[in-house]
Amino acid sequence: MHRRFAPWRLPLAFFCIGLAYLYASPHFESPDSYYHLGVIKWIADHGGALPVQSPDHDHLYAHEGSQPPLYYLLMTPIWAASDSSDFADFFQVNPLVIAGRPARLGNRNQLFYRQPHPPNLAGTSLALYLIRLASLAMGTVTIFAIYQAARKLAPASTGLAVLAASFAAFNPQFLFISSSISNDNLVAMLAALSTWMLIVMLREGFHTRRSILIGLLVALASLAKLGGLILGLVAVLCGFFIARQTRDRRGLLILAASIAVFWLVLAGWWYLRNIALYGELFGTGALIEHFGGRNASLLQLLTQEFEGFRISYWGLFGWFSIFTTPLHYAAMDILTALAIVGLAIHLMRNRQDRFLMSACAALILLTAAGGAALIWYSMQTPSSQGRLMFPYIAAISLLLALGLSALKLPAPLVAVPMCLFSIAAPFLYIIPQYDHPPQVERLPVSAVPVEARWGDIRLIGQEIPSPRRWTPGDEIPLTLYWQPLQATRELHALFISLIDAEGEALATIDSFPGWGSLPTTWWQPGVIYKDDYILQIPAEAQGFSAVQLHIGWYPFPDGADIQPLLNSGETIAAYTVPLGAFVDVGSQETLDADAIEDGTIFGGAIRLNAWRFSDGHILELEWQLTREIAGDLRVFAIALQDPYQPNAPFEIAAQADASPAGRLDFLKAGETFLTRHNFDLPAGYAKAHSVYIGWYNEDVQARLPAPYPADMLELPGMRLVAADEEQSA
Predict the structure, then answer these.
(1) Distance between alpha carbon 206 and the CA centroid of its chain, in Å?
(2) Is 415:355 a contact under the CB 8 Å cutoff?
(3) Could you give the C-alpha distances from 490 to 459, 523, 530, in angstroms and in order?
């Protein structure tokens, strides 16, 4: 097994899989990536000078301007040596991006990319790929260090090393971050190397060259990210433990001196700079002031944000906007729970093993201290992100591997599925979010040809579901086929809304074509674009109403809606497509207890549950289907001058017919709905009447049968009063 899992194999596998993530994710589609580049670019543009954090939000580096600078200083030569003259054209932000809301679909891209796939290896894009390759190399070293640390932790168990390295190498989120522009990659590498050296020190005791190396790594880590400071604390505590066991005070002195001297020489200047600029050692106050502070409680973090933290440790792509599959998160939860149980069992069984106990204590302390620091920071500003624990991924992976090994779980049983999933993830979840809409030569047979124009934007076909019943949480798939008539320099935005009978929007997509990936300024005239969308009906949507799709365009950002022009030459107010009815079973409308109960059934299918007359001119009726019924059905409500007499002439004093909010075809037996009838009376009108109600089918111009003369129910003794009279009264 040792030969099969030679030390270089897992780092090599990580690097190769990381190239897939490098390919799949465009340059700035990982958290804070263009802010990190902003720091690099600033240093390159200002002759090596570091940015200064300020309330000014116009700088590209934003809140990252007060981060420790080592990663940026290392990446600056790559940027400076590259041709980035096209940066202004390359860096075009998507103003309609949806970040941090993975339940929402589309508009994942922070920027517009002329060529998301395959990669553009020229100019600014090439420089960014070189920086990302360097970052991926740092991640590769991290995997190597974890493997070697595990070999020192349990020299007789290659399986432990495979498990530990696999928990990092095949973690989709770590692969994603490692292939992006982020200082997390440098501090994770330095921390993993430090962890490896600490485990060696705990096993073999002090060694001068190793102590010097630990001091160097700790200093560099603290200059890469503030989390690196925790390594120094843990290293000193490990040193005290070893000195107590071996009485080697000289070794402790060399270790402590190495950490102190290297920190003062290599990193101390930056911390002194913070005091001079911001009046604080770490610069976090300036960062929080820029990013935005808050005062969250520990309970709030645990109850409201822990799930997001957990998910974003294992795989939440984009700017916290692209989930993997729930099965992946569930599997990692199960493995984590098993590992915790196994670790507790392992430590109980081997509590006499001084090295094992001390090494596990160091790993647990490193993880706990890192977690505590993140909790403290998250209470002050929104930052409950799993990736922020990657500086301690070596310790976390080693502990997980120890726990699963104690349960005799074979390493390949965990490593192989994780590897396969990590390979598939960029192709299944990342690439589809950023590709431009496909171009087609002609309309497919599945599309319905249409002809509508918004200026030079032409809709020539659509694939939209037939009218049906829609409920909260449903997703409406639709495909639109656009053919721009000519190139434009104007940016236009598309909106797709699901509107109810009152014209209110139940759900809306506001986007540029390709769900945000292709601005209209990049469209090619005459090309047919296949534009796919999924309109999500919110789970909290309520009511019962006919619904239709409203499709339109407007000049971005705040131009008036463009009126569509049909092929007939007619300009219409809005382009709409009927979609059926929206029905929320959980919030069906009923009248209050003050309504008058009834039980009349019309057409053998529609029962009048209750009715209420108010304000002298408003009649509300509560209905319930006893069985399903179809047809274009309306309720009539008429006030007669005199009580109705069969076969005798009658005079209508007032009439207030009304339709249900949606066709009854889309309701099921047992469901209720209301109709509201507002009698429009002449000014000053006030007179008592009997009101008669019933149903009629407009399709066949016939009333639904009811057990009353003329198939209508009398609601007696209503005093109709004009609205103006009622108000004045």
Answers:
(1) 48
(2) no
(3) 18, 11, 21
Strands of 594-679 (E only): list them.
596-597, 601-602, 606-614, 618-625, 633-640, 652-655, 672-678
210 residue type, one letter: R
Helix ranges (DSSP H) in 170-227: 172-178, 184-204, 208-224
Buried b (16+ CB within 10 A) or exposed e, 660-670: bbbbbbbbeee
**From CA 186, how far away is CA 74, in angstroms rounded?**
10
Residue 436's SS3 state is coil
The answer to whether the bond into 557 is cis (omega within 30° of 0) is yes
Residue from 356, 577, 587 nearest 467 by CA: 577
Q: Are strands 575-583 and 468-470 parallel, antiparallel or unpaired?
A: parallel
DSSP string, 15-33: HHHHHHHHHHS-TT-STTH
Helix residue ranges per DSSP H, 263-353: 268-278, 284-291, 298-300, 306-314, 326-349
Residue from 32, 42, 33, 31 nearest 73 by CA: 42
Q: Phi-psi bin for 604: left (phi > 0), alpha (psi -120 to 50), beta?
A: left
**Structure token pair of residue 342:** 């196994």
Q: Which strands sit side by side in the sheet containing 565-566, from one edge to the other? A: 439-440, 528-536, 475-482, 457-463, 448-454, 565-566
**CA-closest candidate to residue 185, choices 423, 401, 388:** 388
Among candidate residues 722, 10, 18, 26, the one with its CA nearest the CA of residue 435: 26
Distance CA 37, CA 271 (A): 22
Averages of pLDDT over each 10 residues, the chain, 729 residues: 67 97 94 94 94 81 90 97 92 90 88 86 94 98 97 90 96 97 97 97 95 97 95 96 93 96 96 92 82 82 88 93 94 96 94 93 96 90 88 97 93 95 96 92 94 94 96 95 93 96 93 94 95 94 93 93 90 94 87 91 96 94 95 94 89 94 93 94 90 92 93 91 62
In three-state secondary structure terms, 498 is strand
Are 419 and 166 within 8 A, CB to CB? yes
